[in-house]
Design goal:
Layout lengths: L5 E7 L4 H16 L2 E7 L6 H8 L2 H18 L7 H6 L8 H31 L8 H10 L4 H8 L2 H16 L7 E4 L4 E4 L3 H17 L9
Parallel strand pairs: 1-2
Antiparallel strand pairs: 1-3, 3-4
Helix pairs in contact: 1-3, 2-3, 5-6, 5-7, 5-8
């Protein structure tokens, strides 16, 4: 594959069903186009209190979110989203802050590729296996299956540095006026794409990359 001519910032939240649908589509595009995918955490609600406040109660939050899951499942080609399995779980619907910190900890170990592999595995634990990804034990078990150093991940995910990185991603989203996940951004946020069909994403991304290549050798400034 040719060297990347374009960096795409992928803003995501591990509890987001649309992010689960988006990620494999983006992997297909990354295999096809000369792009680098840079991972950005963007937590919609960072505490149970904020989740309950956003929907009226914890119970209403779970019901509403599982309604989103049902729509996401209609667009997931592999049938990976287990709505009824999560409906049966007794733990409160998790927020994404701890998993965001774990993803950043994975990135410290294994870069963007490691972040992506770990994020996808955490999402599968959440949306397919219906595990509680607000639980340290689940996140560390998931890290183990990805071949990460779990002792280091446990330490890093609770560190001030990782908290700073998660906050930094959120501030960048605000600066680029990104308010929803999943979102893809290039050209310092000037071009953005939310979830869509793979054909739509391929068409739009192809146009953006064509424009970038037309600017060569200035394309090195896009990194």
């Amino acid at each position: 594959m040719k060297s990347p001519v374009l960096t795409i910032d992928f803003f995501h939240d591990a509890v987001c069903g649309w992010c689960f649908v988006m990620s494999p589509k983006l992997r297909k595009l990354a295999a096809e186009f000369p792009i680098r995918v840079r991972h950005r955490t963007f937590v919609l609600q960072d505490s149970p209190a904020k989740l309950a406040a956003a929907f009226g109660s914890a119970e209403k939050a779970k019901d509403a979110i599982l309604g989103h899951w049902e729509r996401c499942a209609e667009h997931d080609e592999s049938g990976r989203i287990n709505v009824e399995g999560m409906r049966r779980q007794r733990f409160p619907y998790p927020t994404g802050l701890l998993s965001a910190k774990a993803c950043k900890a994975a990135e410290l170990q294994a870069g963007d590729a490691g972040h992506w592999d770990y994020f996808d595995t955490v999402q599968a634990a959440h949306l397919t296996e219906n595990r509680n990804i607000a639980d340290d034990t689940v996140l560390l078990d998931t890290a183990r299956t990805c071949g990460l150093d779990t002792d280091r991940l446990r330490m890093d995910m609770h560190s001030a540095e990782v908290a700073r990185l998660v906050s930094q991603d959120r501030k960048l989203a605000a600066f680029w006026r990104i308010s929803a996940v999943p979102s893809l951004a290039v050209f310092n946020g000037k071009w953005q794409l939310r979830h869509g069909s793979l054909a739509q994403m391929r068409s739009e991304l192809g146009s953006v990359i064509t424009d970038a290549l037309a600017q060569s050798p200035a394309s090195k400034g896009l990194q």
